[in-house]
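Q: Sequence in, structure out?
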Amino acid sequence: MEELIKYLESIGAEITKGSSEMTGEIPLVMREFYEKIRNVELPFGRIYDVELAIKKSERQPFNPNWFVFGQDNYYNFWLCSKHKSKDGYYFTYWEHESGMEIEEPAWEDLLSFIKEVKDDINGEW
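A: Exactly. Output:
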């Protein structure tokens, strides 16, 4: 978690620290994050506070398999699977205007996911 926090600070993220109440809707892989951080504003998106994440996750097509923990500044929701994929991954993103199904997770941890999203944005933010 310390490595994630250092990375977020290095890219200019605004981190609101503090713990959130844990419920069964929060995937285990996201609990350590929400035990220390309430929400994050990034130059290219945001990680929601746990209350908003749970609210968004109740909607279709996310419920019951996905936890929606954030979004970029375009059209992509950031998703965490409630169950590890057969390849050991949890994280992906989904462009809600694409009309496509949500794909399998492609990243195993939040840090690698955020780094990839930042690289994909290619400085457009």
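The mean pLDDT is 92.
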